Amino acid sequence: MARHVVVGDLRVQQIERKDGRRSWTIVWPEGTVHTEADRFLRLHDGSGTQRTYAYLLVDHLRWLERECLALAAVQLRHLERYMGIVDAEVRILLGEPWRVGKRPYGRSALSTAAACLKGFYLHQSSLGVNGELGKKLGTSRLPSRVDRRRSFLGRATRQPRPAEMRRPAAGPCDP
Known about the structure:
By secondary structure, this protein is mainly alpha-helical. Helices cover 41% and strands 7% of the residues. The chain has a domain of 97 residues. It is built from six helices and two strands. A two-stranded antiparallel ribbon has the order 1-2. It starts with 10 loop residues before the first strand and ends in a 23-residue tail after the last helix.
């Protein structure tokens, strides 16, 4: 299996196998494999799901990086907020807009994203990372219904939020 080093943003990387098949993984900006994501994606090796999950998961991992959240620190409310930011119907404050300039997730993409994230965090929990979140995910569903109110309002999430809803202007990961 040949792995190509890619320098740039956290991104999805295609892996060409010797047998001609393709796999997908996620790499860090310096080109190293994102270990946690790769372990999860390997569960879906050889399926069409692997590529889809890789692209959905890389978006979530970029969001975690922006929010300065480690995998072990993610809570159910963080996942609900993320799903709300990508256009699922939730009843919480969302914070800063995410995916500005990109099309919102549709019903099918939201369902797939919810399944991907739930599977990813349940897998992490099975490896001993964030067991509390794993227990909560085992008994709940992530929001996956399209928020029609925001769609009706012309994608209000693209507009800047009022100051009281924004994160502080400190450095990207300052406490």
